[in-house]
């Protein structure tokens, strides 16, 4: 038993009812820099937490353990030389026949683990930034060629993100919607620019060609292993609840719920922005249009969320 205590790789300290140190093991001395003689008899919180922001938390914790609860926390403690380090603390009350005798506390130095976690988080943030830059670049490649859609994807992305946030969607869903919107028309890269910017109505065969863009977008984007279902969302952004959309005529629940958000944002942006052959129309017109098609073409919750954004005047396309 004694061997296990003294040679345990984790720092262990045994304290009495008043939280004064009775015994420490070798790892405790190594971790905190105090000798056994310097530790025994001292109040444990004064030894490892005094003079830090964590003193109050340490004394609170001691109090909780003294009243019989086991405590498991991650916090910071101080070494003899004053350096703070991240530590996982498990403190167990020693109770025998309903009498409290003291506390058995284990300290695990987790600074390496925390450092590694921070590195991973920074790396994930970096990757996300690169994803956004890559997707934005991809989106603007299309807009450079086709002035007709210049800014369209970015404005749809802004509105779709606002709707998703209003719908209280999870953060990764909001991100997915934003990313997918930025490239939702990327498949138009395969359509001749004259057709895209044609002021008059399209010939049936031209319209057939335009309707291929969600699938072309899907083919382009599914080459990339995104952490979000971007290709599938792009594939479905022209599908409508009643099956009247394209390219596959999906219905209701068959349509990805995130694609249903972009569908509304796409239509609203298209109505409100200027086109070579007409001026943009006011928000009220766009809202009337989506309200009229609520439940037929568009998801009712998405329509409600979008309408409330404009009615409450909390959204604008302008930067
Ligand atoms: Fe589109």
Topology at a glance:
Layout: H1 2-7, E1 11-15, E2 21-24, H2 26-32, H3 36-39, H4 44-48, H5 55-66, E3 71-78, E4 84-96, E5 99-109, H6 111-145, H7 152-166, H8 171-182, H9 193-196, H10 204-210, H11 213-221, H12 230-235, H13 257-272, H14 283-292, H15 300-311
Antiparallel strand pairs: 1-2, 1-5, 3-4, 4-5
Helix pairs in contact: 7-8, 7-13, 7-15, 8-13, 13-14, 14-15
This protein binds fe (ii) ion.
Residues 184-185, 213, 237-238 line the site of fe (ii) ion.
Domain HD-GYP: 127-319
Domain PAS: 1-48
Domain HD: 149-271
* Main sheet properties: 5 strands, antiparallel
Distinct bound molecules? fe (ii) ion
Shape: elongated
Secondary-structure arrangement, i.e. CATH architecture of the largest domain: Orthogonal Bundle
Assign the CATH class of the largest domain: Mainly Alpha
The level of helicity is 40-55%
List the uncertain runs: none
Q: Count the E strands.
A: 5
Strand order of the largest sheet: 2-1-5-4-3
Count of separate structural domains? 2
Rg (C-alpha, Å): 31 Å
Total number of helices: 15
SSE string, helix = H, strand = E? HEEHHHHEEEHHHHHHHHHH
Protein name: Putative domain HDIG-containing protein
Organism: Acetomicrobium mobile (strain ATCC BAA-54 / DSM 13181 / JCM 12221 / NGA) (Anaerobaculum mobile)
Pfam families: HD_5, PAS_9
InterPro entries: HD/PDEase_dom, HD_domain, HD_GYP_dom, HDIG_dom, PAS, PAS-assoc_C, PAS-like_dom_sf
């Amino acid at each position: 038993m004694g061997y296990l205590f003294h040679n345990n790789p984790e720092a262990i300290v045994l304290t009495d009812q008043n939280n004064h140190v009775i015994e420490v093991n070798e790892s405790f001395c190594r971790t905190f820099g105090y000798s056994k003689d310097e530790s025994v008899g001292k109040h444990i919180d004064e030894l490892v937490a005094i003079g830090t922001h964590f003193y109050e938390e340490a004394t609170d914790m001691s109090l909780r353990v003294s009243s019989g609860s086991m405590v498991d926390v991650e916090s910071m403690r101080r070494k003899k030389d004053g350096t703070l380090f991240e530590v996982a603390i498990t403190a167990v009350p020693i109770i025998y026949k309903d009498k409290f005798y003291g506390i058995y506390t284990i300290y695990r130095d987790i600074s390496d683990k925390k450092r590694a976690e921070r590195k991973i988080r920074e790396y994930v943030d970096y990757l996300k930034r690169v994803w956004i830059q890559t997707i934005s670049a991809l989106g603007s490649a299309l807009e450079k060629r086709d002035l007709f859609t210049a800014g369209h994807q970015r404005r749809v992305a802004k509105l779709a993100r606002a709707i998703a946030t209003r719908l209280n969607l999870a953060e990764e869903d909001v991100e997915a919607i934003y990313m997918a919107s930025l490239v939702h028309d990327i498949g138009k890269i395969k359509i001749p620019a004259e057709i895209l910017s044609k002021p008059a109505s399209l010939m049936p065969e031209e319209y057939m060609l335009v309707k291929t863009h969600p699938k072309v977008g899907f083919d382009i984007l599914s080459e990339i292993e995104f952490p979000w279902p971007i290709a599938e969302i792009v594939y479905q952004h022209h599908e409508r609840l009643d099956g009247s959309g394209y390219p596959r005529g999906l219905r209701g629940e068959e349509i990805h719920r995130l694609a249903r958000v972009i569908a509304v944002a796409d239509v609203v942006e298209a109505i409100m922005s200027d086109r070579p052959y007409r001026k943009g129309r006011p928000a009220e017109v766009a809202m009337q249009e989506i309200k009229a098609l609520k439940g037929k073409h568009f998801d009712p919750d998405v329509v409600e969320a979008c309408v409330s954004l404009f009615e409450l005047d909390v959204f604008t396309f302008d930067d």
